[in-house]
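Notes from hallway chat w/ T.B., transcribed later so I don't forget. T.B. wanted the structure written out for a chain they're using in a teaching module, and asked if we could keep both sequence and C-alpha coordinates in one place. Agreed to drop them here.
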Amino acid sequence: MANLALGAATAASSELAADDGDSSGLLGWLTYSDGFHAPTVEEFFPPALFGEGTIFEFNRIMLARVIAAAVLILIFWLVSRKAKVVPTRGQSVVEMLLDFVRTQIVEQVMDKENAKRFLPFLTTLFLAILAFNITGVIPFINMAGTSLIGLPIVMAIWVYVLYLGVGIKQHGLGGYLKTSLFPAGVPKGIYLLLTPIEFLQVFILRPATLALRLAANMMAGHLLLVLCFAATQYFFFEAAGAMKAMGTVTFVAGFAFTLFEIFVAALQAYVFVMLSSVYINMAIEEEH
Protein backbone atom coordinates (compact mmCIF):
# COMPACT_ATOMS: atom_id res chain seq x y z
CA MET A 1 0.00 0.00 0.00
CA ALA A 2 2.89 2.33 0.70
CA ASN A 3 4.25 1.63 -2.76
CA LEU A 4 0.81 2.49 -4.14
CA ALA A 5 1.08 5.90 -2.50
CA LEU A 6 4.53 6.44 -3.97
CA GLY A 7 3.35 5.43 -7.40
CA ALA A 8 0.30 7.67 -7.21
CA ALA A 9 2.36 10.65 -6.10
CA THR A 10 4.91 10.07 -8.84
CA ALA A 11 2.21 9.80 -11.47
CA ALA A 12 0.48 12.91 -10.19
CA SER A 13 3.69 14.89 -10.08
CA SER A 14 4.63 13.78 -13.59
CA GLU A 15 1.29 14.83 -14.99
CA LEU A 16 1.32 18.12 -13.14
CA ALA A 17 4.85 18.89 -14.28
CA ALA A 18 4.22 18.03 -17.94
CA ASP A 19 5.12 20.79 -20.36
CA ASP A 20 3.86 19.31 -23.59
CA GLY A 21 0.81 21.57 -23.67
CA ASP A 22 -1.73 18.76 -23.15
CA SER A 23 -4.34 20.17 -20.77
CA SER A 24 -6.84 17.31 -21.04
CA GLY A 25 -8.25 15.91 -17.82
CA LEU A 26 -8.75 17.46 -14.39
CA LEU A 27 -5.07 17.51 -13.38
CA GLY A 28 -4.06 18.89 -16.75
CA TRP A 29 -6.69 21.63 -16.42
CA LEU A 30 -5.49 22.47 -12.92
CA THR A 31 -1.90 22.62 -14.06
CA TYR A 32 -2.69 25.36 -16.54
CA SER A 33 -4.95 27.29 -14.17
CA ASP A 34 -3.44 30.53 -12.99
CA GLY A 35 -4.48 30.10 -9.35
CA PHE A 36 -3.31 26.53 -8.80
CA HIS A 37 0.26 25.61 -7.95
CA ALA A 38 1.23 21.94 -8.14
CA PRO A 39 3.48 20.49 -5.41
CA THR A 40 7.14 20.04 -6.32
CA VAL A 41 10.32 18.82 -4.64
CA GLU A 42 10.79 22.37 -3.42
CA GLU A 43 8.28 21.42 -0.71
CA PHE A 44 11.10 19.51 0.97
CA PHE A 45 13.44 22.49 1.05
CA PRO A 46 11.44 25.08 3.02
CA PRO A 47 12.85 28.55 3.78
CA ALA A 48 15.23 28.76 6.71
CA LEU A 49 13.80 30.02 9.99
CA PHE A 50 17.30 31.07 11.01
CA GLY A 51 20.94 30.29 10.22
CA GLU A 52 20.39 30.32 6.45
CA GLY A 53 23.46 29.24 4.50
CA THR A 54 25.26 27.86 7.57
CA ILE A 55 25.61 24.40 9.06
CA PHE A 56 23.15 25.54 11.74
CA GLU A 57 20.35 26.29 9.26
CA PHE A 58 17.00 25.56 10.89
CA ASN A 59 13.85 25.11 8.80
CA ARG A 60 10.38 23.62 9.13
CA ILE A 61 11.58 20.02 8.76
CA MET A 62 14.13 20.53 11.53
CA LEU A 63 11.38 22.09 13.64
CA ALA A 64 9.18 19.03 13.05
CA ARG A 65 12.02 16.78 14.22
CA VAL A 66 12.67 18.83 17.35
CA ILE A 67 8.97 18.91 18.25
CA ALA A 68 8.57 15.15 17.68
CA ALA A 69 11.63 14.33 19.79
CA ALA A 70 10.59 16.72 22.58
CA VAL A 71 7.03 15.36 22.73
CA LEU A 72 8.27 11.76 22.74
CA ILE A 73 10.71 12.46 25.59
CA LEU A 74 8.03 14.37 27.52
CA ILE A 75 5.49 11.56 27.19
CA PHE A 76 7.88 8.93 28.47
CA TRP A 77 9.12 11.18 31.25
CA LEU A 78 5.55 11.82 32.45
CA VAL A 79 4.58 8.15 32.23
CA SER A 80 7.70 6.83 33.97
CA ARG A 81 7.46 9.54 36.63
CA LYS A 82 3.95 8.46 37.66
CA ALA A 83 4.02 4.78 36.71
CA LYS A 84 1.58 2.65 38.70
CA VAL A 85 0.94 -1.06 39.16
CA VAL A 86 -2.60 -0.44 37.91
CA PRO A 87 -1.78 1.68 34.85
CA THR A 88 -3.58 4.84 33.82
CA ARG A 89 -4.85 5.19 30.25
CA GLY A 90 -1.71 6.98 29.15
CA GLN A 91 0.53 4.40 30.78
CA SER A 92 -1.52 1.61 29.19
CA VAL A 93 -1.01 3.06 25.70
CA VAL A 94 2.74 3.36 26.23
CA GLU A 95 2.97 -0.17 27.62
CA MET A 96 0.99 -1.47 24.64
CA LEU A 97 3.47 0.16 22.26
CA LEU A 98 6.44 -1.28 24.13
CA ASP A 99 4.83 -4.71 24.24
CA PHE A 100 4.02 -4.52 20.53
CA VAL A 101 7.66 -3.91 19.61
CA ARG A 102 8.79 -6.75 21.89
CA THR A 103 6.25 -9.42 20.95
CA GLN A 104 5.27 -8.55 17.37
CA ILE A 105 8.64 -7.46 16.00
CA VAL A 106 11.75 -8.37 17.95
CA GLU A 107 10.70 -11.75 19.41
CA GLN A 108 9.29 -12.77 16.02
CA VAL A 109 12.85 -12.67 14.67
CA MET A 110 15.22 -13.33 17.57
CA ASP A 111 15.32 -15.79 20.45
CA LYS A 112 14.41 -14.37 23.86
CA GLU A 113 18.02 -13.85 24.96
CA ASN A 114 19.00 -11.79 21.93
CA ALA A 115 15.62 -10.05 21.89
CA LYS A 116 16.21 -8.84 25.43
CA ARG A 117 19.71 -7.70 24.46
CA PHE A 118 18.65 -5.54 21.52
CA LEU A 119 15.15 -4.54 22.62
CA PRO A 120 16.08 -1.08 24.02
CA PHE A 121 17.76 -0.09 20.74
CA LEU A 122 14.99 -1.40 18.50
CA THR A 123 12.23 0.08 20.65
CA THR A 124 13.91 3.47 20.58
CA LEU A 125 14.24 3.19 16.81
CA PHE A 126 10.58 2.27 16.34
CA LEU A 127 9.20 5.05 18.53
CA ALA A 128 11.53 7.67 17.03
CA ILE A 129 10.59 6.79 13.45
CA LEU A 130 6.89 6.70 14.34
CA ALA A 131 7.11 10.13 16.00
CA PHE A 132 9.06 11.67 13.11
CA ASN A 133 6.68 10.14 10.54
CA ILE A 134 3.48 11.26 12.23
CA THR A 135 4.43 14.96 12.06
CA GLY A 136 3.44 14.79 8.40
CA VAL A 137 -0.25 14.93 9.39
CA ILE A 138 0.02 17.31 12.35
CA PRO A 139 -1.68 20.66 11.55
CA PHE A 140 0.67 23.64 11.12
CA ILE A 141 3.67 21.28 10.77
CA ASN A 142 2.46 19.12 7.86
CA MET A 143 5.89 17.70 7.14
CA ALA A 144 7.30 14.35 8.21
CA GLY A 145 10.67 14.62 9.88
CA THR A 146 11.78 11.63 7.79
CA SER A 147 10.67 13.10 4.45
CA LEU A 148 14.16 14.45 3.79
CA ILE A 149 16.75 11.73 3.26
CA GLY A 150 19.29 12.92 5.86
CA LEU A 151 17.54 11.53 8.94
CA PRO A 152 16.68 8.14 7.36
CA ILE A 153 20.35 7.83 6.34
CA VAL A 154 21.47 8.50 9.92
CA MET A 155 19.09 5.82 11.21
CA ALA A 156 20.16 3.34 8.52
CA ILE A 157 23.84 3.94 9.35
CA TRP A 158 23.02 3.41 13.03
CA VAL A 159 21.60 -0.03 12.18
CA TYR A 160 24.44 -0.73 9.73
CA VAL A 161 27.18 -0.06 12.27
CA LEU A 162 25.35 -2.12 14.90
CA TYR A 163 24.85 -5.26 12.82
CA LEU A 164 28.41 -5.12 11.47
CA GLY A 165 29.73 -4.58 14.99
CA VAL A 166 27.81 -7.45 16.59
CA GLY A 167 28.62 -9.73 13.66
CA ILE A 168 32.37 -9.08 13.92
CA LYS A 169 32.22 -9.41 17.71
CA GLN A 170 30.37 -12.72 17.42
CA HIS A 171 32.46 -14.32 14.69
CA GLY A 172 35.62 -12.23 14.36
CA LEU A 173 36.31 -10.26 11.18
CA GLY A 174 37.29 -13.27 9.11
CA GLY A 175 34.47 -15.42 10.42
CA TYR A 176 31.86 -12.73 9.79
CA LEU A 177 33.06 -12.17 6.22
CA LYS A 178 33.00 -15.91 5.65
CA THR A 179 29.47 -16.43 6.95
CA SER A 180 28.20 -13.33 5.14
CA LEU A 181 29.89 -13.75 1.77
CA PHE A 182 30.25 -17.53 1.51
CA PRO A 183 27.00 -19.16 2.72
CA ALA A 184 27.36 -22.78 3.76
CA GLY A 185 26.06 -25.60 1.58
CA VAL A 186 26.62 -23.85 -1.76
CA PRO A 187 28.72 -25.48 -4.53
CA LYS A 188 32.07 -23.71 -4.80
CA GLY A 189 31.56 -22.66 -8.40
CA ILE A 190 28.40 -20.75 -7.45
CA TYR A 191 30.42 -18.48 -5.15
CA LEU A 192 31.75 -16.67 -8.24
CA LEU A 193 28.22 -15.39 -8.81
CA LEU A 194 26.86 -15.43 -5.25
CA THR A 195 29.66 -13.71 -3.32
CA PRO A 196 29.53 -10.36 -5.21
CA ILE A 197 25.74 -10.33 -4.76
CA GLU A 198 26.07 -11.04 -1.04
CA PHE A 199 28.69 -8.29 -0.73
CA LEU A 200 26.36 -5.75 -2.37
CA GLN A 201 23.46 -6.88 -0.21
CA VAL A 202 25.26 -6.88 3.16
CA PHE A 203 27.43 -3.79 2.77
CA ILE A 204 25.48 -1.52 0.41
CA LEU A 205 21.88 -2.49 -0.35
CA ARG A 206 20.66 -3.13 3.20
CA PRO A 207 21.38 0.36 4.59
CA ALA A 208 20.53 2.04 1.28
CA THR A 209 17.10 0.41 0.98
CA LEU A 210 16.29 1.09 4.64
CA ALA A 211 16.86 4.81 4.14
CA LEU A 212 15.32 5.12 0.67
CA ARG A 213 12.16 3.17 1.50
CA LEU A 214 11.41 5.32 4.53
CA ALA A 215 12.14 8.68 2.86
CA ALA A 216 10.33 7.82 -0.39
CA ASN A 217 7.13 6.79 1.36
CA MET A 218 7.07 9.93 3.50
CA MET A 219 7.77 12.14 0.48
CA ALA A 220 4.99 10.46 -1.51
CA GLY A 221 2.49 10.92 1.29
CA HIS A 222 3.30 14.60 1.65
CA LEU A 223 2.95 15.23 -2.08
CA LEU A 224 -0.44 13.49 -2.15
CA LEU A 225 -1.75 15.55 0.75
CA VAL A 226 -0.46 18.83 -0.68
CA LEU A 227 -1.99 17.99 -4.06
CA CYS A 228 -5.41 17.25 -2.56
CA PHE A 229 -5.60 20.22 -0.21
CA ALA A 230 -4.10 22.70 -2.68
CA ALA A 231 -6.76 21.64 -5.16
CA THR A 232 -9.42 21.96 -2.45
CA GLN A 233 -8.37 25.53 -1.70
CA TYR A 234 -8.37 26.38 -5.39
CA PHE A 235 -11.81 24.93 -6.06
CA PHE A 236 -13.47 26.49 -3.01
CA PHE A 237 -11.97 29.96 -3.23
CA GLU A 238 -10.89 30.58 -6.83
CA ALA A 239 -12.75 28.29 -9.22
CA ALA A 240 -15.88 29.55 -10.90
CA GLY A 241 -19.39 28.17 -11.07
CA ALA A 242 -20.03 24.47 -10.79
CA MET A 243 -16.31 23.71 -10.50
CA LYS A 244 -16.50 24.76 -6.84
CA ALA A 245 -18.27 21.48 -6.13
CA MET A 246 -15.07 19.63 -7.02
CA GLY A 247 -13.60 21.04 -3.81
CA THR A 248 -15.74 18.58 -1.86
CA VAL A 249 -14.25 15.68 -3.82
CA THR A 250 -10.65 16.77 -3.29
CA PHE A 251 -11.31 17.51 0.39
CA VAL A 252 -12.72 14.01 0.97
CA ALA A 253 -9.76 12.55 -0.92
CA GLY A 254 -7.39 14.60 1.23
CA PHE A 255 -9.05 13.37 4.42
CA ALA A 256 -8.85 9.75 3.20
CA PHE A 257 -5.18 10.15 2.32
CA THR A 258 -4.55 11.67 5.76
CA LEU A 259 -5.88 8.51 7.39
CA PHE A 260 -3.86 6.45 4.95
CA GLU A 261 -0.74 8.47 5.76
CA ILE A 262 -1.18 7.73 9.49
CA PHE A 263 -1.27 4.04 8.59
CA VAL A 264 1.81 4.39 6.39
CA ALA A 265 3.65 6.25 9.17
CA ALA A 266 3.14 3.29 11.52
CA LEU A 267 3.77 0.73 8.78
CA GLN A 268 7.12 2.25 7.82
CA ALA A 269 8.27 2.30 11.45
CA TYR A 270 7.29 -1.38 11.67
CA VAL A 271 9.06 -2.33 8.42
CA PHE A 272 12.24 -0.43 9.30
CA VAL A 273 12.53 -2.07 12.73
CA MET A 274 11.52 -5.52 11.50
CA LEU A 275 14.23 -5.45 8.83
CA SER A 276 16.73 -4.07 11.33
CA SER A 277 15.94 -7.00 13.64
CA VAL A 278 16.42 -9.44 10.78
CA TYR A 279 19.79 -7.92 9.82
CA ILE A 280 21.05 -7.98 13.41
CA ASN A 281 19.87 -11.56 13.87
CA MET A 282 21.55 -12.66 10.65
CA ALA A 283 24.80 -11.07 11.84
CA ILE A 284 24.88 -13.09 15.08
CA GLU A 285 23.69 -16.41 13.66
CA GLU A 286 26.28 -19.10 13.11
CA GLU A 287 25.12 -19.74 9.56
CA HIS A 288 22.68 -17.91 7.30
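Follow-up for T.B.: The helical segments are 2-17, 25-31, 60-81, 89-109, 112-134, 150-181, 191-237, 246-284. Might be a good example for the class.
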